[in-house]
Amino acid sequence: MSARTAGPRDAAAVILLDRPSDPLVYWVRRHARMAFQGNFHAFPGGQREPSDADIRVVNGASAELDAACVAAVRELFEETGVLVARGAEGLDSSQRSELRCRLNDGTSTFSDVLDENGLTVDGALLAAAGRWVTPPFSPRRFDTYFFTAWLPEGQQVEQLNAELDHGEWLRPAEAIGMWEESRVLVAPPILHAMRTLAGGFEDLEARFSSIPEARGGLVRRIEFRPGILLFPVRTPTKPPATHTNCYVVGDREVVIIDPASPYDDERDALDAFVDELIGVEGRRVKEIIASHLHPDHIGGIAHLAGRIGVPVAAHRLTAEALEGKLKVDRWIQDGERMTLAGNPEIDLRAVHTPGHARGHLCFFEERHRALLTADLIVGLGSVVIDPPEGNMLDYLASLAKVRALEPSVIFGAHGPAVGDPIAKIDEYVSLRLEREQQIVAAIAAGDRTPEAIVARVYTDVPEKLHALAARSVIAHLEKLRDEGRLPDGMDVPA
Ligand SMILES: [Zn+2]
Fold it and tell me: How far is CA 447 from each of CA 438, 455, 462, rounded to the nearest angstrom?
C-alpha cells in the first residue's frame, strides 16, 4: 500500500438546515454494514471524486474549497435527493428525482446533470463549517470539509440511498440530548457541529472553526459516548494498527484503562490530556487499569501511575505474569463492579475474558451496555491467539460470554468503535470456525505440522505473516486435541 492510499481521502459533508426562525438540522444514520462508522449518526456526505475539481463554481473561494463544495453538493443530492444549486428552483420534484436516479446509477455524470439543466454550483449557497481529519487510529481516514446549507424552498429530503438507514430533522439541542443519553454514536466533528449550532446561529463560520481540530488539526480526544473518553496513543503494536486506544471512563471519578505508549512524545500528549481532566475538568483518577499483559497495552502505565500517584489494577494472572516488570497494587476479579461517582454515576463491571491472554479483562458499562473489549475484539486488524498465553477454546468461550451481555457498542483497544456488536462477534466466531474447518480438512489431507497446514490454508495471508499464522494454527490444534478431534499419534508442538 502506498503512502497516498494509506493517508486520508478527500471528502465533504453538508450540515443541512431548515426553518431559519427555529432551525432544524438534518442528520442520518449510516447503515450498520458500512465499513466506516456503521451505525453512527453523521451528516450526508462522502468521498470527493476527481471530476469534482473540473466543475465550475460561481462565488467560489479557492480551487480546493470549490472542489470540496462540488463534492458536498453532489453527495447531498445522491444521498438525500436535495439539490443545492443555482437553477434547481426551475426543476420539479419528479425532474430532480429522475436526475438523481441517472446520477446514482451512473448513466449521467454530475457535470452532465448540471450542464444539461442549466444548473450551477454556487459557493454562496454553502458556508464553510470546518475541516476535520479522521485521526490515524482509524483504518479509513477522511479529510473532510463541512459546509452548512439551507434546504432550498420547495424541496424535501427524498428516500435515502442504501448507505443510510435512517434520517431525521431535529433541533441541534435534541441531537446533543440523544448523545448525552447514549442513544446515538457520533464522531467528534458531528458533536462539535451540533454544539456549535445549539449555541446559536450568529457568527457560525468562525465558531465552527474555533478549535484546532476543526481546522484540520489532529483529533486526540474522542467521545463517541458520554463518559467514555478515547485517547488513541501510538504504540509498537501489530500492523495494520499503529495506535492503542487508552480509555478514560467515568464522569467525575474516572479509571484510565491501558495508557499504553512507551514513546516520550505520546506520553507527553497523554499527560497533558490527563492534566486537563484533573486540573481543568476537576475529575479524580481512581486507578489505572491494565486490560492484559501485552507491551502495547502497558507501555505507559508505570510512568502515568508514578506521575499522578494512583494505584494500578489488573487481573491476578496479569499481575503475576508482570511481576518484576510492573507493580500491580490491586487484583480485579471477574464480575467485580466498580461504581464511579459523577453525573451520571457509572457502573463498570469487569469481565474476565481469557483467550487472547490468560488474565484478559473486558469492562461492561451496564446502563448503556457499552463494552470495552481491549484485545478480545478490535475495530481494526485481527486478534492474535498465540499459545500458551493464547487459547482458542477460552477465546471462543469469552466471545460467547460477552455476546450474552448484549452490548450496544464495542470499544476495542485498536481502531474505531464497533456500532454493530452482535454481528461483529458472530463474524469473529464464524471466521475462527471456518479456519478450523480448513485446518481439519488439511489434516485429513495428510498435513501433520503447523507449517504444512499454514502453506495449504493461509493462502490469503502474506508469507511474512506465516510464522504468526503458525502460532494461530497451534492454537486451533490445541483446541482440536482438547476436544479429542486430532488423529491418533498427531502431536501439537508447543
Ligand atoms: Zn494484546
Answer: 11, 10, 20
In the chain, the number of structural domains is 3
3-state helix, strand, coil in the chain (%, to 5): 35, 25, 40
Which domain does 183 fall in, by range? 3-214
366 Cα–ligand 1 center, Å: 24
Residue 231 host element (H or E):
strand 228-234
Cα separation, 351 vs 364, whole angstroms: 7
User: 375 C-alpha to center of ligand 1: Å?
Assistant: 5
Residues 196 and 334 in one domain: no
Identify the pLDDT of residue 240.
87
Gap from CA of 413 to ligand 1 centroid (Å)? 9
CA 427 – ligand 1 centroid, Å:
20
Number of Cβ atoms within 10 Å of the Cβ of 365:
24
CATH number at residue 120: 3.90.79.10
Give residue 266 CA to ligand 1 midpoint distance, Å: 19
Distance 4 CA to ligand 1 centre (A): 29
Whether 319 and 203 share a structural domain: no
Which of the listed residues 214, 248, 276 is the one where a domain comes to its end?
A: 214
Determine the distance separating the centroid of ligand 1 and the alpha carbon of 238, expressed in angstroms.
Answer: 9
On whether both 305 and 238 belong to a single domain, the answer is yes
Give the distance (Å) from ligand 1 centre to CA of residue 269. Answer: 22
- Report the alpha-carbon distance of residue 283 to residue 273 in Å, rounded: 12
In the reported structure, the alpha carbon of residue 301 is separated from the centroid of ligand 1 by a whole-number distance in angstroms of 15
CATH of the domain at 405: 3.60.15.10
Long-range CB contacts for residues 61-64, cutoff 8 Å, separation at least 24: 61/123, 61/128
pTM over 0.90: yes
pLDDT at 5: 44
Those residues whose C-beta lies under 8 Å from the C-beta of residue 180, and which sit 6 or more positions away, are 226
Residue 469 CA to ligand 1 center (angstroms) comes to 16
Considering 194, 214, 234, which residue would you say is the last residue of a domain?
Answer: 214
The rounded percent of the chain whose pLDDT value lies above 90 is 92
pLDDT of residue 34: 86
